Amino acid sequence: MFSAPTETSPVQVQTSKAGNAVKYLLSTSDGFGVEVTYVRRPSKHIICFSTQIGCPVGCRFCVSGIRQAGRRIVRSLTFEEILAQVQCVMTDRGLTPAEPILFSAMGEGEPLLAYRPVVEALRHFGSYPKSRIALSTSGIKPGLIRNLAHENWPKPLKVQFSLHAPNDQLRRRLIPISANIAEVLDALRYLSSATGFAIEVNYVLLDGLNDSIEHARTVAEIATTHKWLVKLNRFNVSELIPYRPASPPATDTFADTLRELGADVEIYETDGVDIQAACGQLSYRSLSTAFINLPIALKR
Ligand code: SF4
């Protein structure tokens, strides 16, 4: 739980140069940093909340993933802690539940490993009149993807599958403990046919690693078979991670190949690159502050 009575007061707030992305670091009562991000878009607000402290999935391109090895105890956040994150943002931005807000379980952590609190929180946010709800998963538990089909959702849930590599061999290098791609696709097909929920494929393009035309062809096959949108994400550089983003020409070629083969594609520039808005980056930078001293006060 976050510390009362200041449970929705952030320890640290960072705003992007463009002013449209804000990242908040909060502290839990047991002394961990938890981050939540706000992004302003022309037609909506986006609140991207965390679901765990650290992340056991261990993606090699993610600060949350690489820092977990013995450095930080991982636990799932509670329903109340998820609500407190979102309430912190809504209070700070002056938002009410009547506004168009996308509530997205795509911050730090694997949402399906915090299954019950995440489902309860998304159902709660889904009860707001103009809200949208979304969840991303690395595919660690295909059985839980199937379970999502039977959760009595108040509105459609958008599910994003973090593919990031088109074959299991390469994918295991990037995402060490996920299920096989075929098992995840089976579960997503089940979810989609049972509910009609939109499925999207997330793919972060890493220079020289997963950005070849051959990789694009395999991603296109997955996307066109299922009629799923592919979101190509630009990698946020970190000194802690030895990867670089794909070059702009490689990114364009990858996207063009997908389009030529009939896939729907969006190239997604991460908002708030200058504030390390990729999952895990702010709380890593603030870790010593969060552990040693917990001044629950707003610092801008
Ligand atoms: S990318 Fe997501 S699933 Fe992978 S380690 Fe980071 S937070 Fe966890």
Protein described:
By secondary structure, the protein is an alpha/beta fold. Helix content is 32%, strand content 21%. The protein contains 10 helices and 12 strands. α2 runs parallel beside α3 (115-126) and α7 (213-226) packs across α8 (248-260). Iron/sulfur cluster (SF4) binds next to α1.
Topology:
Blueprint: E1 12-15, E2 21-27, E3 33-40, E4 45-49, E5 52-53, H1 63-66, E6 75-76, H2 79-93, E7 101-105, H3 115-126, E8 132-137, H4 142-147, E9 157-162, H5 168-174, H6 181-195, E10 199-205, H7 213-226, E11 229-234, H8 248-260, E12 265-268, H9 281-285, H10 287-292
Parallel strand pairs: 4-7, 7-8, 8-9, 9-10, 10-11, 11-12
Antiparallel strand pairs: 1-2, 2-3, 3-4, 5-6
Helix pairs in contact: 2-3, 7-8
The protein binds iron/sulfur cluster (SF4).
Iron/sulfur cluster is lined by residues 55, 57-59, 62, 64-65, 108-110, 138, 279-280.
